[in-house]
Design brief:
about 280 residues, alpha/beta, Cobalt-precorrin-4 Transmethylase, domain 1, Methyltransferase, Cobalt-precorrin-4 Transmethylase, Domain 2
Length: about 280
């Protein structure tokens, strides 16, 4: 460890929304936290019920289309600064820390600075969404595996890759792709997917505001759905999605309002990094 760093950073997965899905180890770490650097998609109840009441809570969320989203380089720098000032810093992320969470950038920054860290997994968004909709992601005769994907309009996906996905030998799960769903469906149909292949879109999985949309590829295109999905939303595609109607156990919420608060813009981004500049360094004792 480099001189000046007595603190440790814990990467902690907060789960997909329901605060009771927080793991025991994660809860124990939050109890001893001196600082918690938290994403937007973390339940407020976790912060109020499980975090050390003396801890500094610093929001560094990201939100698609929002200019209040924190740039990754600022978050990386903040992690290093907090490790120099506190004994136990928690980087609290929604879902699991290793799934589409930019953890590689943050690990690289800490390792380069010589900061000690630990990674504590959480229940993933797809695990939560599957369980809370009654869908087994793999099942004999339905799917041999699961593919976790994300798709933007600028994503480079070859025709060969679309052809393989369109066979639906595996369940396809698309993160952060609700706004590009028309593109995804069109690409799969063009690649030869069965028009009657079912899929669901799960809004705000595991929260009190969970809501599920059910479609087939064909009807989604023919009816020209222009649905604006509430973030975060997760798409589960494949034969297993047909099981939703049979095994769903959680009624859809009538309230589709945002469970996770939208970001608030800090007037100057540098404020995030300087807010704790004058705090004393942690002791090595």
């Amino acid at each position: 460890m480099k001189e000046g760093f007595a603190g440790k950073v814990f990467f902690v997965g907060a789960g997909p929304g329901d605060p009771s899905l927080l793991t025991v180890k994660a809860a124990n770490i939050l109890k001893i936290a001196d600082a918690v650097i938290v994403d937007r998609l973390v339940s407020e109840d976790i912060l109020t019920e499980f975090v050390n009441p003396k801890a500094h809570i610093i929001p560094v969320g990201k939100q698609g289309g929002s200019d209040a989203s924190k740039p990754q380089y600022e978050i990386n720098s903040l992690l290093v600064k907090m490790a120099k000032r506190f004994k136990n810093t928690v980087r609290l992320k929604g879902g699991d820390v290793s799934m589409f969470s930019n953890i590689l950038d943050e690990l690289t920054a800490l390792r380069s600075a010589g900061v000690t860290y630990e990674i504590i997994p959480g229940i993933t968004a797809v695990s939560g969404a599957a369980a809370y909709t009654g869908i087994p992601l793999t099942a004999r005769g339905y799917a041999t595996g699961v593919r976790l994907l994300t798709y933007y309009q600028t994503s480079a996906v070859s025709s060969e890759a679309w052809n393989e996905l369109a066979r639906f030998e595996d369940t396809l799960v698309f993160y952060m792709s609700g706004n590009n769903l028309q593109n995804v469906v069109s690409k799969l149909l063009q690649a030869g997917a069965e028009p009657t292949m079912p899929f669901i879109v799960v809004e705000q999985a595991t929260t009190p505001n969970q809501y599920v949309h059910a479609f087939t590829l064909e009807e989604y295109v023919l009816k020209n759905y222009d649905t604006s999905f509430v973030s975060p939303s997760l798409v589960i595609m494949g034969r297993v999605a047909a099981l939703y109607h049979q095994f769903a156990w959680l009624p859809g919420s009538a309230d589709r309002s945002a469970y996770f608060k939208p970001l608030k813009k800090i007037s100057e981004s540098i404020e995030l990094l300087t807010a704790y500049q004058n705090l004393p360094h942690v002791s090595r004792a």
